[in-house]
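Task card 7
Instruction: Convert sequence to structure tokens.
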Amino acid sequence: MALDISESVKNGDPSYLTLSQFLTVNHVSCLAALEGFKSSANMLVKYMEEYPMCPQILLFSARLDRKHATCSGLKGFDELILEWPKEVQGIQYLWNQYIENALADNIELAEKLLTSWYGKYGEDHCIQSSVSVGTVEVRIETSEDPSLASAEEVGSGPSTSGDEVYRSLNLSLYKIVKNNLKEALVAVDNALKSASEECYEHCLREHAAIHMLEKSSAADGFSLIISYLADHRNLPTRELLSRRFCKNVKKTSLKQLIDDTIGLPSVDSSMINSVLEVCFGPTLLPEKNVEVKYLVDFVETVMEVLPANYRLALAVGRFVVKHYTGANSTSMGTRFWAGSVLINAIFRAVPVAPESVWLEASDVLEKLHAAETVKRFHQQATSVYPFSFKLWHAYFNSFKASGSNTESIMESARQRGIELNVTP
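Output:
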């Protein structure tokens, strides 16, 4: 398939260009993950020659060059920025990625870059916004590690105002290092307002990060997150491959029947969760304890809009396990509430939550001391994943630890070809 696509591109078929570059980006990502730096770097150099104006490929080069600088042919950020054509949009994006890359581990370099950027573009309000973007492809990616991308993300290309959006983001970063938070907030607000679809999530994360600088408490952070729930762009619904047959169904009543029977896909929680990660770190919630009423109000508000957000529900469970361990009524009630939130989120997920989520949830529920709830949860988990050895083993261990008879569990697992060894 890849060879056919490549041949179509060479024959001048532009409709295959996006897909070709999608395969290219993911090929390099896979090589980096499976075979390491050297193999991916060598292949990257070849792809850079074939696609010299694909920013995502060039960013691979810049990041690898900055970390290793041992492979000839790779280009660093400085060289990429110097060589970028003035008539093509993307220069502000490259500057933004260079600055953010430096901010991660070298604040002095980041300050020098921002000073240099401001000298060139800070006072320039006439950045070209109507130039032809041709076949330039941009995928917004702030992660340090390469990751698999969708074809739409790789090949959608920047909007005509893309450079203006990134200029505003860069300006906000410059104002922060100059301790001018007020103007930084204005700049990042402008960036979010004018952000197009392909750069919206990146702008949203930057918006949250900068606004959190003025938030003095967890409650203020919760209020910021809740304000994002009012924007439909933060609540996308992904099309499931298994539902594409519905496109051929013309009768509205039949479509409704299908939706009622198999359920509507859950609203995607990834964008809100990414903002939570920006605000509070990988735990998605503040590290320090917060008042129960603030936590409950916040979580219930989010779950009302995103009822299948099991990642947040798991975070809530871990948070409660850590901070509410007592035998008083407040702690016991909070643990019961956290368990209910977690179970409801997993049960309402469409498509069904991954096996790893069910496993992690069972562990959290055990720590929440929800014995009867854990039993029913394991029953549901093994019905959803009937051939999962890990889930059956967790079910068995849970019953064994409670002193209950495990014969029925062993027999049910055996009927599905799973032997649960009993150790003395």
